[in-house]
Amino acid sequence: MDLILLFNTQFANAWRYQNVSNYLKLGGFGINLVLIGVSLFNPELLESPIAIVVILISSVAILFFDFDFMNKSKSEHEKGERVRKIHLVDFLFNSKIEAVEIDYIMLDLDSWVEKEIEKFKDKNATPKNGNATPKIDSTTNFLSEETEKIPKIISNIQQNCFETSHYLTQYHKELNKKLKLRIIILSIAIMLLWVLLITNDFSRFSSTQLFIIAFNLIFATNIFSYIKRFEEKSDKLKDLDKTLEKIKNSAEMSDVIYYFSEYNSILTDKPLYPSRIYENNSKGVDEKWTEREKKSQAKKSQTAEHKSSKPE
Fold this sequence. Notes:
- By secondary structure, this protein is an all-alpha fold.
- Helix content is 81%, strand content 0%.
- It is built from nine helices and no strands.
- The termini are far apart.
């Protein structure tokens, strides 16, 4: 089984589910925002029993399907992360857990996912998804002596932290720019203020108005929480990268195992970004990483020369 193709297919499926969930969030938010406006100008229109039932059922249905598709996305993403981790463990630690673990994963694999894998295999293509294939330095001998292997493994984990955090940050910026969160928050505040000015009393709010406002706050909270996760995961990866940089040259294998587990736990429920984020930024990120490595090597060489020049 081609592990890279397998986890990329699962990430692609997770991305599709996540996209549907995102559209449901935005759709529910937009519809309720319109209803708030309608209730200000023509409140009687929304006070009929039929209107109340329709609004109630549609809002609950949108929340239910949003939750359902997010869970499906999370499930597919976690499966993909399991395979990705096996792929990394095999290369970095030469641990042959692949066969047994993959057997269990294949048992849990939906038939339509297998068809997707075969389709891409026939086309010799990789499915577009919201995740980058983990970088593995093919020129590095990770089976070398442990004293040499540890810094190389740490550097590889750092590279993946560095690149993934950048992609998450870029998409976070794009979402903030597209959705213009400040304008959305301001529009809600103005509408609520307008309602307060008109009614002068919460007791004069109609039950439908209160219901619509409450649901809109739920939709808004879901949108903000989703966008915030990109920033949170990016920050965690950056912190891990900085921690690894401090211990790179003094770490033991137990440290490597601990921080490798930490790295994987961060990625397990990481939100996905579209493939264009990777395609548009990968070249620049690779160049930045190469430049960083050159600076690190130059500093290491200077330190070594300084130590050797000291009289014994």
